[in-house]
Amino acid sequence: MTMLLIRHAATDMAGTLCGQSDPPLNQQGRQQAEALAASLGHVRLDRLYTSNLKRAIETAATLARPDIPLIVSEGLGEIHYGEWEGCRWVDVCGTVSGITTYEESPNGAAPGGETFEAFRSRVLRAFQTVIRDGAGTNTALVTHMGVIRVIMNSLFPDHSSWNPNKGIEYCAVYRLNIVESALRNEAHCSIDRHCSA
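Given the sequence above, the corresponding structure tokens read:
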């Protein structure tokens, strides 16, 4: 199975904790999504999954074709930051003692938000469903930075092929070659290529 793991294009909330907030793409984002579609126009896709949030759906729509409908998955939505949504991470770190990354406090959560462990479990369940249902296909998955980080950290826990601290650009694409063991819930794969539209 070959999978394209794609981050959505830009919105007016760029640079903030957008989470479950649901802004549409802005003008720059629409241009990024069109460039993404042009760069992947030669790629054969059999299945196309997207998060249930507008920014992912609108990005994925540029890749959709009459024979490839969008499959919307709520499990692939970004983490819910609760009262922190719309804030900048640097500002949160400045006001909440002891927080440097969300991953370091897996059972902690923003006020009214989702714990990182609950988010991680949700994402990996949805990802395993995509793998199971898309066995033997070329699949694209349009989602969010937090979701991509969870998936990549799960697939590459030794960080040999993935830097867990790096940012992920809008419309960045990771091409994953997923081997059969992933279908047995072992989720091993290799990165063939990383590009940015």
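Residues 116-133 form the longest helix (18 residues). Try to locate this feature in the token string yourself.
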